[in-house]
Inverse folding.
């Protein structure tokens, strides 16, 4: 046994740990250490009964030299000289050497069990109160290298908090795997919550159809933002557009030349004025905009918004759904026609190859946010005043053709040949030469024949009245989508199956009663009640089938897993030509609704959290899933 004293005192350690804002940051720091060690697999364990948290990886164990350095917190060889990437080529996530110290936020003592290349198993105990690191060589050996960090005597409330759906949803977004998948060699990360099946944390989303899919990146070497807006089915320029002058007038000129938008609405960030952006680091990102709230149901079920990542790992504060850091609510209040709303916009901003030792943009000690200094203000200008400015105005012009240049109907380059063409600022006689990027291909633009011309370029409705005294008449651009049906009900033939259950047993009576209550509730008015009863009916029907058929496994901790088990059984019945389940494609639709559209995750959110209920999602999924319910109640 060897014991060494921390170079830092316990009071200094406590001061540093006092800045760690959440238990999930501790877990994230342990994950980053494992990723930096080039792990292939990482397992996280939350055990309320044992009051423990553990993070284990299967790659590198601690070397003797690394164990010695544990007594020198605050020092790190990461991101020094050529030590910038791990064995997989991923840029290292840490650099301050404080990640392991964060465990003291959750416990007084932590154990590290590790097996390096010599296959001997070592135990290291970190003691906060004593300020010591103790090292033991055990009599055990291991066939593989591994490292396990074990936190003991963790308060049960902390374990409960980390196990809550809101924190698990944040953990699912701890890295950019959702958007990048195989583009970055992430390890497989699994979460084990005591009493529940293990769940894989890093998942990839098959994004549903969207209005806009925007990719952008900023390169500080030439101080330019490269912007591309893909708009399926719309006549919107999809060429890469380069913004290399970030002053409002220049941005407006690019919007005119590339997108035919003659009147732009500035964001609040455009009111600021910066001339030097050399301190802003490289960043990349993707913004997805949806029209219908239900279109992004799969993303919403996982709690996605617009998150910020550094070296592909999330900054904690941006994982909170209520953090509308892009100001989307402000956009929707200023211009009602925009689809840029907090629940319609998803995506990420990532800072690749970010070296804290060199960049002017600083990350807080708790690694939850950036230090909000002058460089941070410039960054926000680029994101809000350039990227979001462009998306916002593309969207507004798409909904309201009055903002578009008439000459863009047939030829986006035609304004260059018109000597009387107005610039975005209202000056006449200026041409559009000298702008960077390639011109769009000829596309027919919306808004033919528009005569609208605002006076100051802010696009407000109050200025929509023309100079000739023509009375203002608002466009009928907003038509709320109506629900096709008022209630979630069965047909008369299907209802006969439900009625036949009366007084068979308690579960059968529950199914009948839930169906009766569900049929009486207005889908538009009583959304949460419909969601609760809908979920209860899916659960009860699945349990009913499991009681009739032993091949169906009902898991009390996972309704989705239970339904998948039932669907596997129903698929086999299809092959046998069983009545009421003779369409193989129906079973596939039910499975896609549950596994791809993540119906159960969405219903769980409605039941357990404050998330608004998407009535369209309930209606659309019900029209297929009620067939599943009937199948569960009739297949023998």
């Amino acid at each position: 046994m060897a014991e060494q004293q921390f170079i830092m005192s316990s009071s200094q350690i406590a001061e540093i740990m006092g800045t760690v804002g959440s238990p999930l940051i501790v877990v994230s720091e342990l994950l980053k250490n494992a990723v930096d060690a080039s792990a292939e697999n990482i397992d996280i364990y939350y055990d309320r009964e044992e009051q423990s948290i553990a993070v284990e990886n299967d790659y590198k164990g601690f070397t003797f030299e690394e164990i010695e350095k544990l007594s020198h917190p605050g020092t790190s060889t990461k991101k020094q000289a050529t030590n910038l990437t791990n064995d997989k080529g991923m840029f290292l996530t840490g650099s301050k050497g404080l990640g392991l110290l964060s465990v003291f936020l959750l416990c007084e003592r932590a154990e590290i069990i590790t097996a390096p290349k010599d296959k001997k198993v070592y135990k290291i105990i970190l003691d906060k109160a004593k300020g010591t690191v103790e090292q033991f060589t055990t009599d055990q050996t291991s066939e593989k290298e591994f490292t396990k960090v074990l936190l003991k005597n963790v308060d049960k409330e902390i374990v409960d908090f980390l196990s809550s759906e809101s924190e698990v949803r944040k953990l699912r977004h701890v890295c950019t795997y959702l958007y990048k998948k195989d583009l970055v060699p992430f390890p497989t990360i699994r979460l084990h919550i005591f009493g529940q099946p293990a769940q894989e944390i890093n998942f990839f989303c098959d994004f549903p159809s969207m209005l806009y899919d925007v990719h952008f990146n900023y390169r500080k070497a030439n101080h330019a933002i490269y912007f591309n807006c893909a708009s399926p089915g719309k006549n919107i320029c999809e060429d890469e557009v380069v913004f290399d002058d970030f002053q409002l007038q220049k941005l407006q000129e690019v919007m005119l030349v590339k997108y035919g938008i003659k009147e732009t609405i500035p964001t609040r960030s455009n009111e600021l004025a910066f001339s030097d952006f050399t301190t802003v680091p490289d960043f990349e990102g993707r913004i997805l905009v949806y029209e219908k709230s239900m279109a992004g149901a799969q993303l919403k079920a996982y709690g996605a918004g617009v998150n910020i990542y550094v070296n592909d790992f999330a900054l904690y504060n941006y994982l909170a759904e209520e953090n509308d850091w892009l100001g989307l609510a402000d956009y929707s209040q200023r211009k009602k026609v925009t689809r840029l709303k907090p629940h319609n916009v998803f995506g990420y901003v990532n800072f690749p190859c970010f070296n804290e030792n060199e960049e002017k943009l600083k990350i807080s000690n708790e690694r939850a946010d950036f230090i909000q200094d002058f460089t941070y203000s410039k960054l926000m200008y680029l994101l809000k005043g350039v990227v979001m400015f462009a998306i916002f105005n593309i969207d507004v012009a798409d909904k309201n053709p009055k903002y578009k240049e008439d000459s863009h109907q047939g030829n986006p380059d035609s304004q260059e040949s018109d000597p009387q063409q107005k610039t975005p600022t209202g000056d006449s006689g200026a041409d559009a030469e000298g702008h960077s990027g390639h011109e769009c291909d000829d596309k027919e633009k919306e808004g033919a024949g528009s005569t609208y011309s605002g006076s100051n370029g802010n696009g407000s409705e109050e200025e929509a009245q023309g100079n000739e005294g023509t009375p203002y008449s608002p466009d009928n651009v907003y038509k709320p989508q109506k629900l096709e049906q008022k209630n979630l009900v069965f047909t008369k033939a299907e209802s006969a199956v439900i009625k036949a259950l009366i007084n068979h047993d308690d579960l059968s009576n529950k199914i009948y009663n839930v169906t009766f209550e569900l049929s009486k509730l207005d889908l538009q008015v009583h959304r949460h009640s419909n969601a609760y009863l809908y979920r209860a009916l899916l659960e009860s029907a699945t349990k009913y089938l499991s009681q009739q058929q032993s091949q169906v496994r009902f898991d009390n901790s996972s309704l989705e897993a239970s339904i998948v088990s039932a669907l596997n059984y129903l698929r086999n019945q299809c092959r046998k030509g069983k009545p009421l389940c003779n369409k193989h494609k129906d079973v596939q639709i039910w499975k896609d609704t549950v596994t791809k559209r993540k119906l159960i995750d969405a219903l769980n959110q409605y039941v357990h959290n404050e998330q608004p209920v998407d009535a369209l999602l309930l209606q659309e999924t019900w029209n297929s899933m009620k067939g599943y319910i009937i199948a569960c109640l009739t297949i023998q």
Notes: The first helix runs from residue 10 to 17. The chain is about 30% helix and 15% strand. Residues 216 and 227 are 5 Å apart (CA to CA).
